[in-house]
Amino acid sequence: MTEIEWNVERIKSSIQDACQAANRLREDVQEIVVTKNRTVDEIQEMYSLGFRHFAENRVEKLLERQAEFPQDDIVWHLIGPLQSRKVKKIIDQIDYFHALDRMSIAEEINKRASKRIPCFIEVNISKEESKHGFEKDQVINTCLQLLDYPMIKLEGLMTMAPLNASSSQIEGYFQELRELKEKLELELDDLESPLSLSMGMSNDYPIAISQGTNYLRIGTAWFTNNKN
Ligand SMILES: *Cc1c(COP(=O)(O)O)cnc(C)c1O
């Protein structure tokens, strides 16, 4: 067994366990392979193991990856912040955008996209200065405004826990995002489909599952067994 195979087995079984503990369906949780800083061989191995959801946090890198992996069965997620001037060259190349963090980007996407693009609103739940995203109390109004942008499909909410937070703090942040999503679903009564949550990374994905996440953005843990 390669190190990657070993990690995949370990992570898959802990996703399964977390779903079971939370009484959730396994198919409601989609793991995404974050390929940031990984080699072509490592990503190829993940593809060979059957993974089809891949993510990058930078526009140039994502385009480079697509050139390396032109397989048309890959679902591409952009998970990092997007600058207005880069919207045009990336927006039709991706399947999901996880980091809609300001209104001006929504406007630009609406103007440039030639197909509807599923977007997650990034929420700065932990209120860290350094973090991107809307404040929690701006989210409902923002989403109401987004209904006027036909090219944006409101897919759900995304957040990141602070690096140094304890498990119980992380659980609190993830719970806040879930409750905000539930509130939003009540406010926006003509939603075409239920909203999703994008939360959970290498160090906190079991907690995210317990709080209802639908998309796990896992990078490091697939490739190294170093739980630092
Ligand atoms: C890098 C990154 C991840 C993955 O982080 P790991 O700790 O390596 O699992 C997830 N989400 C975003 C937005 C990232 O930039």
TrEMBL record:
Residues 163-194 form a coiled coil. It comes from the Bacteria. Transmembrane segments: none annotated. Residues 39-223 form the Alanine racemase N-terminal domain. The modification N6-(pyridoxal phosphate)lysine is found at residue 36. Keywords: Coiled coil, Pyridoxal phosphate. The keyword Disulfide bond does not apply. It holds the Pfam family Ala_racemase_N. Gene3D superfamilies: Alanine racemase. Belongs to the pyridoxal phosphate-binding protein YggS/PROSC family. Pyridoxal 5'-phosphate (PLP)-binding protein, which is involved in PLP homeostasis. This is Pyridoxal phosphate homeostasis protein. It comes from Granulicatella seriolae. The lineage of its organism: Bacteria, Bacillati, Bacillota, Bacilli, Lactobacillales.
